[in-house]
Specification:
The complex is a heterodimer. Chain A is of the alpha+beta class. Chain A is built from ten helices and 21 strands. Classes of the chains: A alpha+beta, B mainly alpha.
Chain lengths: 378, 281
């Protein structure tokens, strides 16, 4: 879903300061109708503040928020057709499940008979119909989250905001809830905006992800694009693991981008992002790095001669973290740098015969290298 | 064996040691023996309450206490003052607590200090100052007014020292309020008024009950401040008991005190029951 569907939410140059700290710094992004959009970033990157501004719980210092092409920036939170599932779920402790879900409809003065019907439907959507008379303290964490979900969905919001929806659940329940959320979104068709610091969560659920750092948007793209074509070292490092190599010089010859390195000589870059070509054409001083995803390091037992398409390197075998299907292998280079590689189950059979500290060889395809500008302030 | 199983103490093992049991027993006896003696001797068939010789069981001093119109009047006065004080203290205390919890304003620390001052000021000073205040205002003459308006100055005095306690208890309760609950209600379309009615006040209920109980008991048994602020013709229960004791201690006083103890116990039990509401978020 790379193509942008019709724009539902249009955020324009949004800025929010808390005394001297800029929490959200000139953020612009668009969310399409019916998508799952994730705001991803480390803690303190401004993603929660951005979400709260969309909800209306925080007022922007400058910029605008458009919903269906009309500004909602001045509409108070209790009048916006946007609802939120809070991180603590914020289920009202003194009300039954049913009354929790009915609360928003009662505030809207919907007729009692209609409330009953809509609450019933919302509760069945989250499989809580048989718990309707319980109080929140009688429910598990997962059930409480479902109450919060039903309570928001029953309002039929244009956008549902979810603040770290899976962070409070244990690992197993988290996987289950993740699938259920995606399924629920497909059923109800409401646009979801999810805030998370967990890249796996964002990658698994979202159609598109905005990576934020220090209040600024680093990149907005699909999970695949973020992984394979990160715009800078911050995104590359935040989305999955990446090995970085120093680059001495980048030159452009006949539309070919060449990176000169100490480790591998001159590498021709295959995938040049728009941002990279923009930076190459500008006069800005940029520190370049070569990036390589761990799974692109192919471990070989014998000393394989590099072909035209590949380069090789060798290093000591370091720690191995067994993770089932794939294992993470550390390779220590002579210059004290260490690289991350991925070994398949087959590779592991061979590696197991080797001792920690013995030499291993790796083969890398030249076209797998990514050319990344180092992010200015990370 | 060097490490026997018994050498490891379980959390409540200290209660098994006889020395500790003895301390516990003595403490309990010192605390409650006088009260129990007071209750027992309210049934003593003796002329004098100070007489600790058992002369047979009787309930005649209860009948006598109820027949003593002055004592009953004092008792009703005390209950009236306590109820009104409780209501005023809860309203003022809740408002003060929310003001100090929610808003930022100039000189807030000073306001906080002034509000909690009546808790630490010696009662005698408060009594004197209130007496001076009422005499300046010409309110000491309220004793001549018709009931219950003759109780106005005592009620005002009691509210003055009781509501800071109520505010303190409610404010403590507010500390545990999850602000996301309020935001969730607003997000669902609630107005500010609805947030208070549906979310904040239900959360405060245990604090309000505890604060109300505190105000009620503080008012019911207050002697010092009442003594200074009551006019010559208005008498509350503690003041009346004091004046009766000055003549002679009769089992009638024991009987009246027992009734007071029972009222307090019943109210406390009720309050504890009302607070048994689950507090999980």
């Amino acid at each position: 879903m790379n193509a942008q569907p019709d724009v539902l939410l249009d955020i324009k140059n949004l800025t929010k300061r808390f005394s001297k700290v800029v929490a959200v710094d000139d953020v612009s992004l668009q969310v399409g109708s019916g998508e799952i959009f994730a705001l991803l970033g480390p803690s303190g990157c401004g993603k929660s503040t951005l979400l709260r501004m969309i909800a209306g719980l925080e007022l922007p210092d400058s910029g605008d928020i458009l919903l269906d092409d009309s500004s909602i920036a001045k509409i108070p939170a209790n009048k916006r057709p946007i609802n939120m599932v809070f991180q603590s779920y914020a289920v009202f402790p003194h009300m039954t499940v049913e009354n929790n879900v009915a609360y928003g409809l009662k505030a809207k003065r919907v007729a009692a008979s209609e409330i009953r019907q809509q609450v019933e439907q919302a509760l069945s959507q989250v499989h809580l119909l048989d718990q309707r008379d319980r109080k929140p303290h009688q429910l598990s964490g997962g059930q409480r989250q479902r109450v919060a979900l039903a309570r928001a969905l029953v309002m039929q919001p244009r956008i549902l905001l979810l603040d770290e929806p899976l962070s409070a659940l244990d690992a197993k329940l988290r996987d289950q809830m993740r699938l259920e959320l995606v399924k629920l979104q497909e059923t109800v068709g409401v646009t979801f905006i999810i805030v998370t610091h967990d890249q796996n969560e964002a990658m698994a659920m979202a159609d598109r992800i905005a990576v934020l750092d220090q209040g600024r948007v680093r990149q907005i793209a699909s999970p695949e694009e973020l992984y394979h074509q990160p715009l800078d070292t911050f995104v590359a490092d935040f989305i999955g693991k990446i090995n970085l190599f120093d680059v001495r010089k980048v030159t452009v010859e006949d539309n070919r981008v060449l990176a000169e390195t100490d480790d591998f000589g001159v590498i021709e870059i295959q995938h040049v992002t728009d941002r990279t070509s923009e930076l190459l054409n500008s006069v800005q001083a940029v520190v370049w790095k070569l990036g390589l995803r761990p799974e692109k390091l192919q471990l070989v037992a014998n000393d394989l001669q590099p072909t035209e398409d590949t380069v090789s390197l060798s290093g000591e075998l370091g720690d191995i973290a067994f993770q089932g299907v794939n294992s993470e292998v550390e390779i220590r280079l002579p210059d004290d740098k260490s690289l991350a590689a991925v070994a398949t189950a087959d590779d592991m059979q061979q590696l197991r015969q080797l001792q920690s500290g013995s030499m291993v060889n790796c083969v890398i395809k030249r076209r797998d290298f990514l050319l990344l500008p180092e992010s200015a302030d990370s | 064996m060097l490490f026997s199983r018994n050498s490891k103490a379980a959390p409540f093992d200290y209660a098994r040691k006889w020395q500790l049991k003895l301390v516990f027993l003595l403490t309990t006896v010192f605390l409650y023996a006088p009260i129990i003696v007071l209750i027992i001797f309210s049934f003593n068939n003796s002329r004098r309450g100070g007489n600790v010789v058992w002369r047979g069981f009787t309930t005649k001093y209860y009948e006598k206490a109820f027949a003593n119109s002055q004592l009953v009047e004092a008792f009703i006065n005390s209950l009236t003052i306590a109820v009104v004080t409780t209501i005023l203290s809860v309203i003022l205390g809740t408002m003060t607590a929310i003001l100090l919890w929610r808003f930022r304003f100039p000189f807030k620390p000073a306001v906080e200090g002034v509000v909690s001052l009546p808790i630490v000021i010696p009662e005698i000073c408060m009594g004197v100052s209130l007496a001076m205040f009422f005499s300046q205002m010409g309110w000491l003459a309220t004793g001549d007014l018709v009931w219950p308006f003759n109780l106005v100055n005592i009620t005002v005095a009691h509210t003055t020292f009781a509501f800071p306690f109520t505010a303190m208890v409610i404010r403590t309760r507010l500390q545990s309020f999850n602000k996301e609950l309020e935001e969730a209600a607003i997000d669902l379309g609630a107005s500010t008024r609805m947030v208070y009615r549906d979310i904040i006040l239900p959360h405060l209920k245990p604090g309000i009950v505890a604060g109300a109980l505190l105000a009620f008991t503080l008012s019911l048994d207050d002697f010092v401040i009442t003594f200074f602020t009551s006019g010559p013709n208005t008498v509350t229960f503690p003041v009346k008991v004091y004046s009766m004791v000055r003549f002679s201690v009769t089992p009638e006083i024991n009987a009246a005190s027992t009734i007071l103890i029972i009222i307090t116990l019943v109210l406390t039990a009720l309050a504890v029951r009302m607070q048994r509401e689950p507090v999980a978020s």
